[in-house]
């Protein structure tokens, strides 16, 4: 699998055949911010192993049916220049990954340290019974930031 | 095409079927204002006419399964039939010291009934099926004890389509004097049933799994030798005292008409459905890492259950809004818990959760099957590409 | 006119009503082939649409009786509702030492349920009504013991139309912490019911007594304070775990539509029916030796029950093939035993047997009433002239 | 009440209005011989008290919801010249009364002594569960014949 993966991105260049247009129907009533990111899955995937300055973070377990993996590429000033996520889990987990990847662009590790599950829930309108997806996002980002600091030292 | 304007492709016939137009036509005369609206228990002309319609339908239902009309008791559906059969038989016999043998892959209404009986002192053995979902006659016989009052085993499993060897098991239980109840909600019209040859004592049926109306079912109660039941709904003593409550002739006539159609067309239809099911399975083969759940050698014609590695179940379902399919049974899909049936087969939680039950029916077409297969392949690929577990 | 070509005059609306055309129109979209045929428990678009139809109907039923939608549990009819309410409440509480108060003139399904509970150790007091069929709140309160778990009293008696003083009794029972179940099968739409004001805990309803389909009913289960029930039909946990089994949306929507019509038209209709009932009674006055059964001062609008001295019941019924009327309730007329309700009122066997229940309804006309009265007068005279007991 | 009573008789002179024609519908499926006699009730009634040569017989009780009363007018040779019945009871009891009254015409007491319930059941096709109606006919006739003999002695 390569970096771009031919996945739909948020500029929606995926082919408009009947079937994929049909996927736009939010039959289960997910919150719109979750649904759009689930359908488009912008920045899904991972960097090529040779990409410089990439730090990864991960949270969740297969047994809990939620695994989120984040990758961010940092520039020399410690700012995110590009990001990717991969998620195995419900639409909310996928949306959390997509949201963090998008949000991270241009931010420093300091900027990102404050991101909490409650912010994620508010931004994505994640309901109580899916709070664990937001927690997983917080955990994966913290893991990534820890690794970044480990790398620095 | 926008999906709002087009109904999804319906591949959930095992959850419920649409009313056949011919069934509706049979029901309508009992529903129009000048129709046969009387209470069939009433002793006057209109009551007698309603009663006659009920009795004709009773004969139609009996005919499909090789029974006598007097062996058919109307209920509100297979859920009630299963409750009546199991609780009724046990209560009639006396609950103390009684033992029941059933399987872990029965419908929730059988399992829940058994669990209720356990709270009242009945001992229950829940047999674990093999990896393909089959509970063998030998397993059942081995589980019998001198106290075993009843065996309850479904003919066709609703989630994985596995067809149990009822014909082979029934005589073994008869020889041993153990009452045998069969949940045939998914079997009627899809596999051949001839109770004049197969000594089952009690058998549950449902109309809405067979193009009849929802809210009506039946329990076959054998007369020779007589299976005896304590009623579970008490009242005026309708249905030979086994099930009280005003009969619903339009519903009953609908079930009769549906079963009559099955008798004429069921065998040919089963062949057609099996071909559609196989076509769907073939259409999914471009995806690696699929697992078919159930026994392909003993499979009902209408069910195909597949687990998809590397995708999560809820996202899979959310990705397929244009397919009406089921994950697990209808009843358990609301809770989104991994199917207990698939887990009983030994599937781990992740695979059990990432499975879909496709069930085809009378109005399914090859074009629908092909579109559904393409759609599933596309979405499973998409989710696998997003997945953190797939490389 | 030959009777074969003309249906009899239908005066048996208390046994069952025809489907209102508007109700049928509401049901049909759920029955046509491209309709809402999915299982309302299914988690997909078609399932959600079926579920929405079910929930709309739930609100319609709730609205008629001043309840909240979440307080309505679907059943197969009032027989099942009565079973669920009484057995469910008692089982939830634990049967031992429990005491139930009910009346001798309840519907068979209540009495039979109570008798069944007696076999399981519950003590039951069956109150004897006064000569007009009324059980007073005072009688009920006097019958309470510290162990009384439940009172079950019907709102409107199906044979004699007597309307019990539920509004006065309910608060007395609430004060004393005794659960109160009311069988309102005959009452809904015929007398005003507002459960937001009347603290009844459980109330049974049936669609087919109110121009809805047969085979569907409901149980009101109060939420505040919460009435708790042990389920009687176990399974997938539908209906808040109180009643499992696939819901029948076409039936449910029919009940919803029927109750919605009652809410709009019930009061005016009740007036019209009371006038027809009184016209019938007046039309019979040319016969001597009539006895009206029930309390004319507390009578539901649709029922007139009359005993005819000097004629035998079976011959009376046989003489009136062109009238669809009932003797006793539908359920007991097959056995042709004298009505237990009339006997509880103190009528002797001969008079109880020689009685007819006329019940008028939405399609009854003055012309029908007049023809029926003339016919009854003629035939009673004829039989009295033949009778060896009449001089 | 007088002898003729204006009742329908077997030559069916009752008025043919809608309602009475409707009464011909045997909705409950009574045996035809029962049904016709129930509807027509030929010879229902009783003789005027002044009628000579009349003997009565009676059987059944109100509590059993079956009472049959027979009257026969005998000539000087001991033959029945006219007969009446009255019945309170189900259609079968009424038919039994009508049948016996009809059948008695022209017969002597000896001719009538043999009449058994089983004959009545056969002639009227009375089913098992109505056997008591035939028995009541037998009893009422026996009572009448006994009274006739009492009168003679
Ligand atoms: C095998 C089986 N048994 C029982 C039932 C319950 O039947 P019903 O929906 O008629 O209550 C179903 C379907 O829901 C079923 O598939
Ligand atoms: C007072 C009363 N309760 C209960 C019932 C039973 O209702 P259902 O016919 O819906 O089972 C009836 C009618 O049969 C009734 O009149």
From TrEMBL, chains A, D:
A Pfam family it matches: NifU_N
Molecular function as annotated in GO: iron ion binding; iron-sulfur cluster binding
InterPro entries: NIF_FeS_clus_asmbl_NifU_N
Signal peptide span: none
Lineage: superkingdom: Bacteria
Annotated ranges, domain NIF system FeS cluster assembly NifU N-terminal: 30-151
GO biological processes: iron-sulfur cluster assembly
Protein name: NifU-like N terminal domain-containing protein
From TrEMBL, chains B, C:
Superkingdom of the organism of origin: Bacteria
E.C. no: 2.8.1.7
Molecular function terms from GO: 2 iron, 2 sulfur cluster binding; cysteine desulfurase activity; metal ion binding
Domain Aminotransferase class V span(s) in chain numbering: 9-371
Catalysed reaction, written as an equation: (sulfur carrier)-H + L-cysteine = (sulfur carrier)-SH + L-alanine
Transmembrane parts of this sequence: none
Keywords noted in UniProt: 2Fe-2S, Iron, Iron-sulfur, Metal-binding, Pyridoxal phosphate, Transferase
Keyword Metal-binding included in the entry's annotation: yes
InterPro entries reported in the protein's UniProt record: Aminotrans_V_dom (IPR000192), Aminotrans_V_PyrdxlP_BS (IPR020578), Cysteine_dSase (IPR016454), PyrdxlP-dep_Trfase (IPR015424), PyrdxlP-dep_Trfase_major (IPR015421), PyrdxlP-dep_Trfase_small (IPR015422)
Cofactor section: pyridoxal 5'-phosphate
Family note: Belongs to the class-V pyridoxal-phosphate-dependent aminotransferase family. NifS/IscS subfamily.
Name of protein: cysteine desulfurase
Species of origin: Hydrocarboniphaga daqingensis
